[in-house]
Write a structure and sequence with these properties.
This protein is mostly helical. It contains 16 helices and no strands.
Length: 378
């Protein structure tokens, strides 16, 4: 969520230096926490009791996790300069950076699987880090060249300090952690299905396809943060996101329900009969999720325009509570839904998030109306 903090707070070089200093310190803390998790028994406890991973996978999983230690700093620097690019309205550069990332990952994974296949899980980690580093380098190169004022433009424009950055970004940092917990909760639930290996594989396959769409939808709040300050733009934004939601739901529906789409989905991915059948059932449950995600991301953008990041964090925590509650229930009662439990959990949790976000925005709008001056009758 550093990207959103940059869009909201960075207006000059001083603000940028303060933000980079803040995220560097935060990244170092996360680096040492990652190392601590790997070198202490805590990592094995998480794998054994939370993720229900077999013992023979612990070593490779912990090694792969250790390689992720520099990820927070690389991701944060990338997000800062992409935030600058978005605020300056140069999203095409971000597309270029992500394209370079995809090409790099393809080259690296082909090379590692060809010449170092015994590296196992570390291949995925190294591939991901290589791609993200290239994306960060491209974003940094272009973002650094953007025209940014050296100091505040006026006396009314106060430069940000660490306290202001922490107050705005800390709730957003919590969101990233919540997303991580969400993935663990879904994995824990699927691990207790009647056929856990098949359920996890079916969910992973389906989620990887739908995630391409969901990631794009979850960028809508950044557009709202850039354009939301302009007068009269809200109706146009709402029309746009409504169309995006309709398209977002239509694409997985075509794959899930039309015979041609079902064949394309199963044959293009080379799925077996058992895996393909459960993956298609799972995909059907994913169909309404883009609509709910668009609603949530639109509300997030409208709240972040008003710098209400704590309300956004509260809604995400409500999302996490629903996921954890369902995961805990499946530890007592067997998960008979199989892989479909994954999108069911995501859909239920995101609906709760939308309810909380809508309530927060409604309360703000009512407060704004109460404090707005009454029209002059004279």
């Amino acid at each position: 969520m550093i990207r959103q903090t940059t869009i909201s707070l960075v207006r000059n070089r001083y603000d940028l230096r303060m933000l980079i200093g803040y995220i560097t310190r935060l990244s170092l803390v996360l680096f040492f926490l990652t190392v601590l998790l790997v070198i202490t028994p805590l990592g094995q406890l998480v794998l054994q009791h939370l993720l229900n991973a077999p013992e023979h996978l612990w070593g490779s999983a912990l090694r792969a996790f250790l390689l992720f230690a520099p990820l927070p700093l690389i991701s944060a620097i990338r997000s800062v300069y992409q935030g600058i690019l978005l605020y300056q309205r140069h999203p095409g550069v971000i597309t270029l950076a992500m394209t370079c990332r995809a090409v790099t990952m393809g080259i690296v994974v082909l090379g590692l699987t060809q010449y170092l296949p015994h590296w196992g899980a570390s291949i995925g980690t190294i591939t991901f880090l290589a791609g993200l580093t290239v994306e960060m380098a491209v974003s940094f190169a272009y973002g650094r060249s953007m025209p940014i004022a050296r100091e505040a433009a006026s006396a009314d424009e106060h430069p940000v300090d660490v306290k202001a950055i922490a107050a705005f970004s800390a709730p957003l940092v919590v969101l990233g952690m919540v997303d991580g917990v969400a993935g663990c909760a879904i994995t824990a639930s699927l691990a207790r299905a009647l056929n856990p290996e098949l359920s996890i594989a079916a969910f992973t396959v389906t989620n990887s396809v739908v995630a391409v769409l969901i990631v794009a939808l979850q960028s809508l709040h950044q557009m709202i943060m850039v354009f939301g300050h302009e007068l009269g733009v809200l109706p146009a934004i709402l029309r746009f996101v409504t169309g995006v939601a309709a398209v977002g739901a239509a694409l997985p529906a075509l794959l899930a329900f039309l015979p041609q789409g079902r064949r394309l989905f199963t044959q293009s991915l080379g799925l077996t009969a058992d895996l393909g059948g459960q993956a298609l059932t799972t995909l059907q449950w994913f169909v309404p999720l883009p609509i709910v995600v668009v609603a949530a991301d639109t509300l997030v953008g409208l709240l972040l325009v008003r710098k209400r990041s704590r309300m956004v964090a509260a809604a995400k925590i409500a999302n996490m509570c629903v996921l954890i509650s369902i995961a805990l229930l499946t530890t007592r009662w067997s998960n008979n839904a199989g892989a479909a439990m994954g999108p069911m959990m995501l859909l239920s949790a995101t609906c709760m998030e939308v309810v909380v976000l809508a309530g927060c925005l409604l309360s703000i709008r009512l407060q704004e109306r109460r404090v707005s001056p009454a029209p002059d009758d004279t």
